[in-house]
Structures are given as structure tokens and as C-alpha cells.
Amino acid sequence: MITRFPSVALVAASVLLTGCGGGALAATDHASAPTPASSSSASPSPSSEISAEAAARQLPGVGPKMLARIPAGTEQVVLVTGRGANSPLSTLALYERTDDGWEETVGWAAHNALKGWSDHHMGGDLRSPIGVYSLTDAGGLLKDPGTKLSYDHGSGFVSPGTGFEGEPLAGSFDYVIAINYNRQPGTSPLDWTRPLGSSRGGGIWIHVDHGGPTHGCVSIAEDHMKELLRTLDPARHPVIVMGDAAALGH
Fold first, then answer.
1. CA-to-CA distance for 147 and 35, rounded, in angstroms?
2. I need a labelling partner for 127 at 20 to 30 A (CA). Which of 83, 114, 157, 212 fits?
3. What is the pTM (predicted TM-score) of this model?
4. Going by DSSP bridges, is the β-strand pair 137-140/150-153 parallel, antiparallel, or unpaired?
5. What is the pLDDT of residues 196-220, one digit of tens each?
6. In terms of Cα–Cα distance, which of 82, 163, 81 is closest to 116?
């Protein structure tokens, strides 16, 4: 079911582009949204329906500390594994919980931030935040492709100019999924609320790949974005586990 969001007032001229979606203009065709149960960063859980050992074997490269941050109720994990701490290249795979552990359903090439990864992301550092974050809200310049996530369809999802390698950014925000890093879940991806403060950045999304590194987001091809949007189900409490391979292994 599509949920629309309250109007988001942003003054584009005063906004520093701290994440891929940090400087987007506000959309105008929004209404109310429910209060979500998930937090801005998925909380650690000491228990699970399957053993930690089984889950670790089936979430490749994810170590016990990172694994423990995945809530017991989570049944879908978007795993983004960076090639290196300072690399903008990564892979994105979707895993679903089964009686035997985690099963990979799809996997694609992806980009992350220009300078790689950080476990203490700051606005403008051109690094993607490492961690486990819930996924509750989506949106885009194009109409809802059939997602079960709350979806904000509006004209504010624009990205003018060119990327770090000279590639055009047009269409990058045709579809986006907000990563609940330093944002208020249950709001439009365009919402500017920053619980950790503006210095810690924000506007970190999964969005359509433009063929080069991002400011802090994760990007995949448009067809893959549509498939991911159609697959993620809020009833299965999806989260994203993201970071470079070394960081994920802790």
C-alpha cells in the first residue's frame, strides 16, 4: 500500500549536499504517514530464530559483532560489501531468512561514496556510513513501481549536474530507498530531520546508478532498483548491512 508524506520544507540555496539526497528539493504532493516501529539504526539483538553460526555462514563476510546488530525479527537483509575501505566499488545482495539460515536471492554490482567508507560518517566526507540500518521509506521522480514500502512520488527527486567522473546525474533519483542513517523513519526520503545533528550528514539512499561514485549513497542499475523496491516488505523488517569487507568482518 502506498503511503504519502507530509510536506517537507527545504531551502535548497542553504543546503549543503552532505549525502546523495541531501540537496534535493521538496516534493509537493504529500499527505500523512504512520509512525514506524523501527529506529534510525537497527538495534542489536541477543537472540535469533536461527543460530548465529548458521547465519554467519550464509551472510558472507559478516562477522559476529555486525551480525549481532541485525534484529531477531528481520527477515530481509540488503548486504552491501565494499571492495575496500577507500574504494567506491561494491556489491549489493539481498538475503532472505529461511528455516536453515540466510539465502541469497539476488546480487548486483554497485557504487558507494567516492572515498569509500567511514564508521563515523560526517557531512561532506564523501564516505558511506558503515553499519546496520532499517529500511522503511522510499520515493522517486517516477511513479511507484509496486513497492510495499511507503513511497513518496514527487518532483523533488532531482539531481542536476554531473558526477565525479563527468557522468550526467539526471535520473539518479527516479527511484530511491532511504537508509535510516541520521533520519526520522516514517517520513519522506526528502525530510531534513537529522537526529544526530546536521554535521553528521544525511540523505543517504539506495538510488539509481549514474555510472560513478556517490556522495555517500549506494547505487545500483535502474532495473535492479525496481526489483529491489518490489521485493522489500516492511512486514519482514528489512535492514541494510553496509561497509567495506574488512569492517563487515568484525
1. 18
2. 157
3. 0.84
4. parallel
5. 999 999 999 999 999 999 999 999 9
6. 82
